[in-house]
Automatic annotation (TrEMBL):
Pfam families: Actin. PANTHER family: ACTIN. Signal peptide: none annotated. The lineage of its organism: Eukaryota, Fungi, Fungi incertae sedis, Chytridiomycota, Chytridiomycota incertae sedis. This is Uncharacterized protein. It comes from Blyttiomyces helicus. Belongs to the actin family. Coiled coil: none annotated.
Amino acid sequence: SDVVVIHPGSRNLYIGRASDAFPKEIPQVIVRRTSSPSTSPPFPTHIRISPAALEPIEADVKARLRALKIRTQPSSHAQVKSYNAQAVPETILDHNDSFKVDWVEFGNDALRIPILSTPPPFSPATIPRPPPPPTAPAPPLRAFYPIQHGLLNTEDYTSIRACLADLQTIWTESIEEELSIPRANFSSCSVVLVIPDLFSKTTVREMIGMLVGVAGERGVAGGGMGFRGLLLIQESVSASFGAGMSTTCVVDIGAQKTSIACVEDGLCVPDTRINLKYGGDDVTAFLRSLLVKNDFPYRELDVEGRVSDWLLTQELKEKFCTVNEVDMIVNVYDFQVRAPDRPTLMYRFKMYDEIAIAPMVCWGGNVASRRQIVVGRIRPLTPTRMPPPMHFLRRRRALPTLPDLLSPLDLAVSRSIELYAHAYTDIKERDLEDRVRRLCASILLVGGGARARGIGRLLADRVGRRLAESPLRAVVLESPREMDPRFLCWKGASIYAKLDMAGEMWIGRQEWEFGGVVRVLGKMIFGWD
């Protein structure tokens, strides 16, 4: 109960005691008033609907329906548009709204920003009081996300220290309010930090100093949090611990990134790490564009201007999105719109293939224009034709790099498996084939973006096609131990903290103060170079 497990994400923070069954899910964002414009929008705005982008995805969906001999009606899209164009909202009174939202009034005390505090009253007995100047309008509210795409947000912050200061504020208040641990007791607690597979050494070094440093320490943004010790673990390794698997290929679909890495015997193979710059937010933005294209009845939908509308689209994605072919029928759905000082409105609308096309962002179509791929510790090679899957066990062949814009998820997974085979040059071919066979049979799908129904079956089918000429068979595991895939990494980190082997991996405060990174390199179960 004295160990705090922290798994920071691009949208949410998963935090809790190691003895808890499930973590607390907290939005990792700070809202303050500022007049400086944002250089990067908080939600993706790059999704575009064009025939060139939709045609490959629609053709793929129709081919899957024909393969299963599922008949479709030619007039399905016309039915959806006609019904949605005539939809009228229904007003729900407050006493009939079971899920009524209590809105928070923003003020100086709620925002807790020093520059917004009211100055002390002027004393008229000492100096004559001049007439008050006209009141200037308050600066607009702006949301700051310290972590974007799995890395520190260097676009909206002037420095890394400013970003870490906001991150420290969020973590400190979350521990105090959600876990009921006062700041004075941090020195008697330890912390487990889950870091990305592809990490920045500067970011990890600053986070270690922030967590174990004491208040007012030199080089720590705003003073450290003063924990007794720290344990570091990578996301792929913690997911394997949470699933109870020693050898697996972890596919983590988050809000803004998708990371892939192979784990063997509880260690991440460095050369297999791949980071795709798309995730669940791209699916949400694509779904919003598809709904607007088909005359969505809520005409005021504005995901860029109102956070509530973005959360509404996120809710529609989580409730209705699927890649199961049998669910692609014209059906009537409903949703509620809740806004401050307005009654709740319930809309009924129809959807057809939007729920199946939106998750296909991960499988090509070049819908997400910012898509790019980062491969860890791999020297870029000249792109060539991909060798047949039968030959990837022959380790001495040069591997081509992944294309930057048109790399679907199944291609990245198969490439990570190929990199795993090429990472071992000192074992026999037969032993290597057995290892790769076990790896392909244990592809682990985790993350909040992995909750769409049928996504695991589709990924296994696509990866199996990539390996069609080899004797390998792809098996994708979803929700192992019936656990929410969002919490699997956090749960694995809490399990790892209880193991006897973890007792030698704790980074103490004095060790960090006297030796820094050089002193604690032996206590990291991953490579630092």
